[in-house]
Amino acid sequence: MDLFNPDFALTILDEIRSGKRQVDLLEVMVCPGGCANGGGQPLPVDEQVIRTRSRAIYEMDNSGSVQEAHHNPAIGQVYHEFLKEPGSPASKEHLYTTFSKREVNSGSSSPGS
Fold first, then answer.
1. Which SS3 state, helix, strand or coil, does residue 85 take?
2. Distances (CA, A) of 91 to 5, 24, 53, 63, 97
3. Computed from CA positions of residues 103, 108, 109, 113, in that sequence, does the dihedral angle turn out positive or negative?
């Protein structure tokens, strides 16, 4: 289950804690401006660029024939031929990551600003 709304995420977390909802994996994405402006994306130039990027990504996503990764035939083939199953040693080696604290990049190109 993917969540991108912080308020809804809290509701779902409460449901999980109370036993009302059971999930195998929960991904909460609350990037400012949405994930179209989140980590791994180019640093934004201005608000209009962010809006344009977000709109293009959502339009591409909504018009796609596959709406969920686990229904994507290419992903199924990768698991069948290589990873074998979710949580397998191969999937952990190639798909899992760890994070470490880093300095925040302000996007400024001049030192000290």
1. coil
2. 28, 16, 30, 29, 11
3. negative
Q: Which residues pair with 2 in a beta bridge?
A: 27
Whole-model pTM above 0.85? no
For residue 63, the one-letter residue type is S
47 vs 10, 55, 61, 82, 96, CA distance in Å? 28, 12, 21, 41, 32
Summarised one tens digit per residue, pLDDT across range 61-109 is: 888 888 777 788 988 899 999 999 888 999 989 888 877 777 776 655 5
**Of residues 30 and 92, which shows the higher confidence score?**
92
Q: Give dist(CA 32, CA 19) in Å, integer.
A: 30
